[in-house]
């Protein structure tokens, strides 16, 4: 535990640990990124403000966008059909700027549970859901999700019965995936906005289930 | 069948295929754990520029991308439940018909 042998010299007056300054040298790829960015700005391809705007646009994306898509699919069967046919087009139809994202939606049903992973790196539907959680990028998750998905799901609190088939989707190339979770019981008559509140980030990765209505 | 891009495709959905057991160096998007394994074409997606060339800034040909479904029992000898599946995206030049 971090507090077992703490040293009060390392705590700020407010009791929080000091964060070390980033005094280490730049890595090879950090240098490369800065060099390419500065060259592109010098050549007039992009401006520094445009780069900052793109970072801001990515940071403003969140699982709430995906939750809105899921809630629409739960309440509008025609939209759900379009989502399963072409999830990129359906997301754009709702007004989400997902850029060139090639998205496939996979549906959880009474007998199928879907789980998303990228074993090769950390492919994630960022342009819809925002940045992935840190665990999604770890070697543990990336290797175990395809090797023992049921054990992984149990650790996330999802204990599936044996008659439910697990389908893992490994984003190995150009496509990204989002899980369309099953609509929870006891939500008949709920409005789309209230339903969206039940949709968690993990339920759209497949490591979780939507919340039950209060 | 022709794809929307007009390119002929080699495999229809439902076709049994094997992933080539090749180990070339470079930026290869075919995962090692699926090489040599048998699966079924889940769907043909569309052509994309070959990442094995694209990654090095050389002229990249378009290759048709498929989703291939593998049973866990085919991939792992001690699978938790052999009829669970893993789907992966594999380019046409990595697949052979069984």
Report what the structure shows.
- The complex is a heterodimer of chains A (214) and B (98).
- By secondary structure, chain A is an alpha/beta fold.
- In chain A, 41% of the residues lie in helices and 10% in strands.
- Chain A has two domains: 26-60, no CATH class; 62-205, Alpha-Beta Complex (Nitrile Hydratase, Chain A), CATH 3.90.330.
- Chain A has ten helices and four strands, in the order αααααββαααββαα.
- The longest helix of chain A is centred in the first third of the chain and has 15 residues, at 28-42.
- Chain A is globular, with a radius of gyration of 21 Å.
- The mean pLDDT of chain A is 94.
- By secondary structure, chain B is mainly beta.
- Chain B has one domain (1-76): SH3 type barrels.
- Chain B is built from two helices and five strands.
- The longest helix of chain B has 4 residues, at 51-54.
- The mean pLDDT of chain B is 93.
- The chains are: A alpha/beta (214), B mainly beta (98).
Count every helix of chain A, treating DSSP H or I runs of 4 or more residues as helices.
10
Give the overall shape of chain A, derived from the CA principal axes. globular
- What's the total helix number of chain B? 2
Q: What is the chain-wise order of helices and strands of chain A?
A: HHHHHEEHHHEEHH
- Spatial strand arrangement across the major sheet of chain B: 4-3-2-1-5
The CATH homologous superfamily of the largest domain in chain A is named: Nitrile hydratase alpha /Thiocyanate hydrolase gamma
What proportion of the residues of chain A is helical, as a percent range? 40-55%
Amount of helix of chain B: under 10%
Give the termini distance of chain A in whole angstroms: 35 Å
Q: Element order, helices and strands of chain B?
A: EEHEHEE
What's the total number of strands of chain A? 4
The low-confidence runs of chain A, each spanning 5 or more residues with pLDDT under 50, are none
- Report the portion of residues of chain A in β strands: 5-15%
Class computed from helices, strands and strand pairing of chain A: alpha/beta
CATH class of the largest domain in chain A: Alpha Beta
The number of strands of chain B is: 5
In what range is the share of β-strand residues of chain B?
A: 35-45%
Oligomeric state of the chains in view: heterodimer
């Amino acid at each position: 535990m971090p507090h077992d042998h703490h040293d009060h010299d390392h705590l700020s007056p407010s009791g929080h640990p000091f964060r070390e300054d980033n005094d280490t040298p730049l890595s090879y790829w950090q240098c490369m990124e800065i060099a390419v960015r500065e060259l592109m700005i010098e050549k007039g391809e992009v401006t520094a403000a445009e780069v900052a705007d793109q970072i801001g646009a990515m940071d403003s994306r969140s699982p709430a966008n995906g939750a809105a898509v899921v809630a629409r699919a739960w309440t509008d069967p025609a939209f759900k059909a379009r989502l399963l046919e072409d999830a990129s087009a359906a997301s754009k139809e709702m007004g989400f700027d997902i850029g060139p994202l090639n998205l496939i939606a996979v549906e959880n049903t009474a007998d199928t549970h879907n789980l998303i992973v990228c074993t090769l790196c950390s492919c994630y539907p960022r342009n819809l859901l925002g940045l992935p959680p840190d665990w999604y990028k770890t070697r543990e998750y990336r290797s175990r999700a395809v090797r023992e998905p049921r054990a992984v799901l149990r650790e996330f609190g999802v204990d599936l019965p044996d008659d439910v088939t697990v389908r893992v989707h490994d984003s190995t190339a150009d496509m990204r995936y989002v899980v369309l979770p099953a609509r929870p019981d006891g939500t008949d008559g709920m409005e789309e906005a209230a339903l969206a509140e039940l949709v968690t980030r993990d339920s759209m990765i497949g490591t979780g289930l939507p919340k039950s209505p209060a | 069948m022709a794809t929307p891009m007009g390119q002929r495709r080699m495999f229809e959905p439902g076709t049994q295929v094997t992933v080539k057991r090749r180990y070339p160096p470079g930026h290869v998007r075919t995962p090692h754990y699926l090489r040599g394994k048998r699966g079924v074409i889940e769907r043909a997606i569309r052509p994309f520029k070959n990442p094995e060339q694209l990654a090095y800034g050389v002229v990249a040909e378009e290759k048709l991308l498929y989703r291939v479904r593998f049973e866990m029992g085919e991939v792992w000898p001690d699978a938790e439940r052999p009829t669970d599946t893993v789907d992966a995206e594999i380019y046409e030049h990595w697949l052979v018909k069984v």
